[in-house]
Amino acid sequence: MKIDGLSGFIANAINQEQKKQVDSGNVFADLLKSVNQAQAESAKAIEDFVAGNGVELHEVMIAGEKAKTSLDLLMEIRNKTIDMYKELTKIPI
């Protein structure tokens, strides 16, 4: 059994941390995309219900509530981010 040196372990840990940082940068963009997708699905469900394409009323309501909830979450994240920025700008240097 071969035992790798400490340098290999450290290099692997650094690579994994860099991948996490790159992935975390896309979290907000993914959140925006999911909110947009929920809004589009809600609009499509409404259109299909009005057109009589076999969509039930409860499906329309569920899609609408999903879209509303995801938008509310996004707005709260935005508000907390703005509050955090305002608090950080108050800190004297």
TrEMBL record:
PANTHER family: FLAGELLAR HOOK-BASAL BODY COMPLEX PROTEIN FLIE (PTHR34653:SF1), PTHR34653. GO terms for biological process: bacterial-type flagellum-dependent cell motility. One of its GO terms (cellular component) is bacterial-type flagellum basal body. Keywords: Bacterial flagellum, Cell projection, Cilium, Flagellum. GO terms for molecular function: cytoskeletal motor activity; structural molecule activity. It is found in: Bacterial flagellum basal body. The lineage of its organism: Bacteria, Pseudomonadati, Ignavibacteriota, Ignavibacteria, Ignavibacteriales. The keyword Iron-sulfur does not apply. Pfam families: FliE. InterPro entries: FliE. Its main location: other. This is Flagellar hook-basal body complex protein FliE. Belongs to the FliE family.
